[in-house]
Amino acid sequence: MANSYFGILSSFNHDIQEWKTYKSRINQWFLANEINNTTDPSGKKRRAILLSALSEGTYRLAENLALPKDVQEVPYEDILRFFDIHFNPKIVGFTERHNFYAASQQPGETHSQWAARLRGLTSRCAFHDIEEALRDRFIMGMMPSLEKEKLYAQDITNLTLTKAVEFAENVRCAKSAAIASASTADASAASTSALYKIRSRGKGARSVKSDLPVKQKCKVCGYTNHKASECRYADFVCRECNVVGHLRRMCTSNKVNYVDNGAGDENIDDDGKVFKIRSLRGEPMVETVFIQGMAFKFEIDSGSAVTVIPEKLYKSHFKDIPLIVPHKRLMSYTGDSITCVGTIRLPVYYTNRSHTLDVYVVRDGGPPLLGRDFISTFQLELSSVLSTVNYCQGTLPSVEELQCQFPVLFSDKLGRFTKHKVHLQLKDNAKPVFFKARPIAFALRNKINNELDRMVELGVLKPVDHADYASPIVPVLKRNGTIRLCADYSVSINRQLIIDQYPLPTAKELFAKLYGGKNFTKLDLSMAYNQFELDDESQRYTVINTHRGLYKYTRLVFGLAPAPAIFQRAMEGLIGGQEGVLCLLDDVLITGRDDAEHAARLRAVLQTLQEAGLTLQREKCEFYKDEVNYLGYVINKNGLKKSPDKIKAIVDSPAPSNISQLQSFLGLVNYYRNFVPSAASVLSPLYNLLKKGVKWSWGLDHHEAFTKIKLLLASDQPTSTPKQG
């Protein structure tokens, strides 16, 4: 006989949930069901329950953390320890305080919820006076409202967080009471039948005059079937003025009077009826929600009491979640019974919030529906959704919207490519090469130490006691004063590695995809190479020797000879085949002939990158630009232009005094030789100096060619327009 457990244990997806919270919940679930060291001395049962509750992506993570062992053989306590180490990195005080001071109250978030969320952010801030910091940020981070204005006028001496929350709630309640008292609707208006029949006025319908008195509208929502004091939208936040107590269409701050469209009252019956309601134009209200890290499009249907998905969707994405016997019977508008095969509890992520909903799975269902349970849980204001029903499909999504839809991609964390690990292959005659650590300047020692600590904390570097291969490091001082550590593999392992022959695309091949582009989005991968994991064998070859000892790279690193080709092959495999998408190493450029095409291509690329486990460096990304710098060119809808910075470098170059300097100059010039039709003849004297057996002698003809090519490149030549195909 199967065991009956108390409570429901939801699944864990590390992309949208916190391990610390989930660990506490699963421990409480084990406690409630008496699963402990006595009843489960080996921990096998707890291990099986935990692993079965992991999402697919999190299970893969557990497998990787357990290597070289099989995760199904690792003790339960060890799995917990793996997750603790992985999800609870070393605390960085200023980072935590930045998150605290950057937090602000969200639309729909009550004052109590805002205070509770803020308190949770202080756990790692190490404040000396937590209550004072909480009080200050609570008030400063509040949304613009009457409550905030009145709190700013309070005496700060004796004002605590508790008093501030209580004061704000009192002001809100007083404001709601004032709104309610303004309504003079007759009490009998609320006693009408709970069922409403909505009819569309067709061409043959006659206008019927009524002698009944006109009912006064609710000051909160605008309907006439109840008082404002009984309105269920009384606690909603207006999206026009951000004040609690009314919907946007009843807001007086915008000075626009609401016009009753005569559509009738809303059916507020929650007995499990599923009504498919559409707008007058037949266009569905569609919203994107995230479930277990995947994006789904649902239709919002206020006629449905519950959230519904078809059985086909359940089988394709959630079949591993057991069905629960439904506690409601579902009926259509006509009274016909709808076959419900069961319910599942799913964590739904929407507008930066996550709630667990009971989702009904129906047989032969239509599109997924977000019902009134979703609307109520997420405090969705339908008037704002209705205002976007006729949303122009050609409008480009805002950056904030993209960050919400792809939270992992814009998380500012180091990504991890999930498709495969990188393998470095040695030549047959390869022999271990070990270099001692090079001496470093004392002035750079602390900076190098900080960078080593940072890379270890990120998991890019890992200390080792001994190694067969070791390469010296070259510290490079960046403009901001920090250090970039570069391994000098040119003297060690690069000579013994088999180089991937995957070709990098030429600029001409790339820019052919730009044909017809209107505006441009440029994406930059955060620490691009470091997002690709090395397999265990390859990590042995990447060891660096420092003044603090040996470290091995666990990720692909700049300086390894095969790295560019390996990275390019992977990126081409992900997004190389998409139209209007250019990719050369960590720089991705996206365009389209119109906004709709641009938006569709951008979302497709972002979805692909997120599914592959990669992340972007938000600060370096550029969205919807009329003109961008890419691969040394300035690109706009008219074509390609020369980069002013590169042209300046060419113009300012002194006359070369040897072959090496001449080769460097010609390398710069050749980048833009397509802009000079006669480049070959102009440069001919310079190339003659590079011929075998020619003695170096800089003469007048060389100087004239040198000067002329500079003038031609510096002139305003017509832009080069990429051709299609």
SS summary, helix count: 22
State the CATH architecture of the largest domain: 2-Layer Sandwich
- The total beta strand count reads 20
Mean pLDDT: 79
Question: Oligomer, anyone?
Answer: single chain
Largest β-sheet summary = 6 strands, mixed
Whole-Å distance between the termini?
67 Å
Counted up, domains total 6
Q: How would you classify the helix and strand content by structural class?
A: alpha+beta
Cα radius of gyration in angstroms: 32 Å
Unreliable segments (pLDDT under 50, ≥5 consecutive)? 182-214, 254-271, 275-282, 386-394, 721-725
CATH topology of the largest domain: Alpha-Beta Plaits
Approximate helicity band: 25-40%
Estimate what percentage of residues fall within beta strands. 5-15%
What is the CATH first-level class name of the largest domain?
Alpha Beta
Fourth CATH level, the homologous superfamily of the largest domain: Reverse transcriptase/Diguanylate cyclase domain
* Shape by Cα distribution: globular
Instruction: Name the strands of the widest sheet in spatial order.
Output: 3-7-6-1-2-8
Polypeptide structure, described:
It is globular, with a radius of gyration of 32 Å. Mean pLDDT is 79; it is low at 182-214, 254-271, 275-282, 386-394 and 721-725. It folds into 6 domains: 19-87, no CATH class; 93-181, no CATH class; 182-186 and 215-265, no CATH class; 286-391, Beta Barrel (Cathepsin D, subunit A, domain 1); 442-637, Reverse transcriptase/Diguanylate cyclase domain (Alpha-Beta Plaits, 2-Layer Sandwich), CATH 3.30.70.270; 642-714, no CATH class. The strands form 5 sheets. The protein has a 6-stranded mixed β-sheet. A 5-stranded mixed β-sheet has the order 9-14-13-10-11, with helices on one face. It has a 4-stranded antiparallel β-sheet with strand order 15-16-12-17, with helices on one face. The protein is α+β, with helices and mostly antiparallel strands. Strand 19 and strand 20 (639-642) form a beta hairpin. Helices cover 32% and strands 13% of the residues. Its EC number is 2.7.7.49.
